[in-house]
Amino acid sequence: MSVGAEADCRFSLDLNPAVREMRDWVHGFARDVIRPAAPEWDEREETPRPILEQAAKIGLYSLDFFAQQWLEPSGLGIPVAWEELFWGDAGIALSIVGTGLAAVAVSGNGTHEQIAEWLPPMFGDADDVRLGAFCVSEPDAGSDVAAIRTRAVYREATDEWVLNGTKSWVTNGGIANVHVVVASVDPALGSRGQATFIVPPGTPGLTQGQKFRKHGIRASHTAEVVLDDVRVPGRCLVGGKERLDDMNAAVDAARLLTWRAAWMARQRKPFDHAEGSMCKLVAGETAVRVTEQAIQILGGYGYTRDYPVERWHRDAKIFTIFEGTSEIQRMIIGRAATGLDVR
Ligand SMILES: Cc1cc2nc3c(=O)[nH]c(=O)nc-3n(C[C@H](O)[C@H](O)[C@H](O)COP(=O)(O)OP(=O)(O)OC[C@H]3O[C@@H](n4cnc5c(N)ncnc54)[C@H](O)[C@@H]3O)c2cc1C
């Protein structure tokens, strides 16, 4: 690391010029627009759309502004901006930042395609302000998110997920354009069996349940979201099914190479192209790679002895070593391909 880079990473709470400038700009909006409007929207107990429109006009309620502050190098962009907005009024501020919950859920775990497709319609633009909602909590699953009952069932024939359940306490619930919903795919696995789904605007079956009348932050809309046979396309599973699919494909490829070598051996066909080494190399390396990915998918649990994947990973490693290491198999394959005594 260069001396300059070290200096950049030093712990410091001095706001850099860009964050200071942004703070003053947001403070001005909070002072001139949010604070004067706060009593009215507290009484009305609804999302202050005209304020969101004004914020959108100056670029404050926008995907660009949120993304800039999330990526701000010192990490202080978001806390500084949010502090100024909430200084203006907590309810109006929550209406401005609430969409961020849904946006983070998709940008944190979604594919590049999902981020590009679904974040813009969560914010809209100054002429057509839109909202996002992140739906996790349920009447019996608040702190204990593992208890979520909303179910997601995959219908292979139509490549759709079908969502059923009731979400509670959702900021922008039922009035958002894009709802991001956490649901259980396999209840037996608790939180590890849950996945996140994007529900596109206007999807039939998603409705607003009761709207909560709250003690405070009343300019922010909080409501139940009812999901009754809500069908979303397969591509709306956040993160996509591809990664597991990749592991399956790798295992299947290794299996095919192994079966081919076994069949050739039984037919007494010569391994002219080092087919035996190919299957040994690919199957051994695949076993190590997919068991490592399985640990990664389970996160911290995968690294404990509570689940068998860490043992499978330890056991898999030997297949790249005994009966001819991966390096030796590569040499044999190289020799068969080139005719050279590759070492
Ligand atoms: C205004 C508002 C906006 C919200 N916005 C959203 C949103 O946009 N999306 C969303 O998904 N959710 C949202 N929520 C839900 C919020 O995340 C939950 O209310 C919160 O997680 C608490 O869950 P709960 O209300 O079910 O309370 P419970 O989990 O039932 O807790 C009740 C009490 O029991 C205590 N408790 C629970 N478990 C334990 C334990 N193991 N040990 C010790 N004490 C415990 C809690 O601390 C609390 O005091 C919102 C809630 C409100 C009020």
End-to-end span in angstroms? 36 Å
Amount of beta strand: 15-25%
Overall, the morphology is: elongated
User: What is the count of β-strands?
Assistant: 9
Number of helices: 13
Strand order of the largest sheet: 4-5-9-8
Mean pLDDT: 91
- Derived from helix and strand composition plus strand pairing, the structural class reads alpha+beta
Give me the strand/helix succession.
HHHHHHHHHEEEEEEEEEHHHH
Q: Measured on Cα atoms, how large is the radius of gyration?
A: 27 Å
- Tell me roughly what share of residues is in helical segments: 40-55%
Uncertain parts: 1-5
Ions, cofactors, ligands: which are bound?
flavin-adenine dinucleotide
Biggest sheet overview: 4 strands, antiparallel
Q: What does this 3D model show about the protein?
A:
The chain has 343 residues and is α+β, with helices and mostly antiparallel strands. The chain contains 13 helices and nine strands. The protein has helices at 3-9, 17-44, 49-57, 63-70, 77-88, 90-97, 99-109, 112-118, 120-123, 242-266, 275-298, 309-316, 326-338, and strands at residues 124-125, 128-129, 132-135, 151-155, 160-171, 178-184, 194-199, 206-211, 222-233. The strands form three sheets. A four-stranded antiparallel β-sheet has the order 4-5-9-8, with no helix packed on it. Strands 3-6-7 form a three-stranded mixed β-sheet. Strands 1-2 form a two-stranded antiparallel ribbon. α11 (275-298) packs antiparallel against α12 (309-316). The structure holds flavin-adenine dinucleotide (FAD).
